[in-house]
Amino acid sequence: MTPELEAALIEAEALLLEPRELYDQYIVGLGQRGHATFAIYDRKALIAGEVKHAIEDEGFDEDVEEGVIEHFEYNILGSWMGEGTPAFLTTFGDPS
If you placed Cys at 39, which of 5, 57, 86, 90 could pair as Cys (CB 3.0 to 4.6 Å)? Predict the structure, then answer.
């Protein structure tokens, strides 16, 4: 995360996923909804990172992806924490 993005997130009082040392690397920018500014995470990269973390650090087997997606959709994507609730960007194809 760039220092400019970090400063903007602090100024906006955006809500961030915890633990930050795990999730901050997936922040791709800021969004606005009305007067609220919020963090936008790369959905695909976040899920891939969670799968990697589960396999390498937590010792789960390679079939963990379905559980990671279910956890993400229910516990992270399905949470509303007010106006600063993060959003998740899904990209399709090559942007070039």
Answer: 86
Contacts of 82 (CB under 8 A, 6+ apart): 15
Helix H or strand E segment including 41? strand 36-42
pTM: 0.85
Q: Which two tokens stand for residue 85?
A: 């609730």
Q: What is the DSSP letter of 78?
A: T
**Phi, psi at 48, each rounded to 5°:** -60, -40
Burial class (CB within 10 angstroms; exposed 0-12, middle 13-18, buried 19+) of 27: buried
Q: How many angstroms from the chain centroid is the CA of residue 20?
A: 10
Strand pairing partners for 54?
none
